[in-house]
Amino acid sequence: MTIRSALISTTAALLAASIAYSASAQQMGQPAGFYGDRERGWFWYEVEPEPDEEPPPPKKEEPAPPAPAPTPPPVQPLATPEPKVPASPSFGSAAWLRENLPKYRDRALDDPSAENVRAYYVVQRLAMDKASAFTDMAQRVVVGDPLLDETGRRPTATFAANEMNAVAGEATDAELKEIAQQVGIWFFYRSDCVYCDKQAPVLEMLERAYGFNITSISLDGKPLPGGQFPNFRADTGQAARLGVDRTPTLVLVRPPEGIQTIARGVLSLQELRRRILTGALNAGWIDQETFNKTRAVDTGPMLPAKIDMPPEVASDPTQLVNHLRSLVKQ
Predict the structure, then answer these.
(1) Can the peptide bond before residue 248 be classed as cis, meaning omega within 30 degrees of 0?
(2) Residue 325 has what pLDDT?
């Protein structure tokens, strides 16, 4: 074989190897290089590109630190409301006079000049005129009103008042005689008590007038110096049980257990009669109607002790009066 033939054979072998390599590279997804890229021509001195370096593994993302808690807004102090200044009362009103009349008086006292004294008396005149106008209207309003006119309860005329006293006195006498049939009186005394000696004659009058059974109980075991109630009893513990701590003491006693203390001191006959009736009322031995007959006054229509008043009614004078009249007890 000649040199020419050997050169051709070598060239053909290289070309076949280049084609095979290019096909293999394409199947493997790699670039064919300049041996398999005929269109680029023959570049014997072309430098093969370095293979791509493998990309570094992705960095693991560190979890973000938790967000700091939001800072609460600063607490604003509550605004203190400014105190409301009350409106000044109008000149000449009752409120104005209550507030200012003493000021005019004090000014006149501290500096009694003609101007200050005259100013005080003029303001006082204003107050007196207002009071006079009120009194005049009060008389007009009260006259003939059964709820307001006190002459219907107690006459102002002397002869009428005396007649009412007589009627009440008769009712008192009758009721005391009725009570005396059921109630006795314990009279606690001491022989050295001068007030007890003065009380004894009054009790004797009460005993003769109404028939009360009076039991005298001596705390020191001795009789009264005046000789009243000679059939006395010595105290055997009754005073301690009833809390008797002074003399004279008077106690109403109604068998079997009714007890009402009516006096811890000296009483006149009139006071004694009234207290016996009041004690009987408190103990429930007489009723309110019977008690009222012994009083020298006609109680007449009365308002109840407890009243439910709607605010809108209380603020209106006409509605207020009408509502109260509807509640009057006859």
Answers:
(1) yes
(2) 85
DSSP string, 106-148: HHHHHS--HHHHHHHHHHHHHHHHHHHHHHHHHHHHHTT-TTT
- Structure confidence by residue, pLDDT tens digits, 269-306: 999 999 999 999 999 999 999 999 999 998 777 888 88
Helix (H/G/I), strand (E/B), else coil: 80: coil
Is 153 within 8 Å of 300 (Cβ atoms)?
A: yes
Residue 223 φ/ψ, nearest 5 degrees: -75, 165
Query: 254-257, long-range: CB within 8 Å, 24+ apart, which pairs?
Result: 254/182, 254/183, 254/184, 254/283, 254/285
Distance CA 106, CA 101 (A): 9
Q: How far is CA 18 from CA 10, 28, 179, in A?
A: 12, 15, 154
Q: Which two tokens stand for residue 301?
A: 């229509």
Q: pLDDT tens across 7-56, in order?
A: 555 555 555 555 544 544 444 445 555 455 555 554 444 555 555 566 66
Q: How confident is the model at residue 62 (pLDDT cuts 50, 70, 90)?
A: low
SS3 153: coil
What tokens appear for 39 in the block?
Answer: 């269109």
| Distance from C-alpha of 172 to C-alpha of 29, rounded to nearest angstrom | 139
Residue 62 CA: distances (Å) to CA of 55, 56, 57: 20, 17, 15
| Residue 228: half-sphere exposure toward Cβ, Cα within 13 Å | 20
289: CB partners within 8 A, 6+ apart: none
The model's pLDDT over 134-158, given as tens digits with 9 standing for 90+, comes to 999 999 999 988 888 888 889 989 9
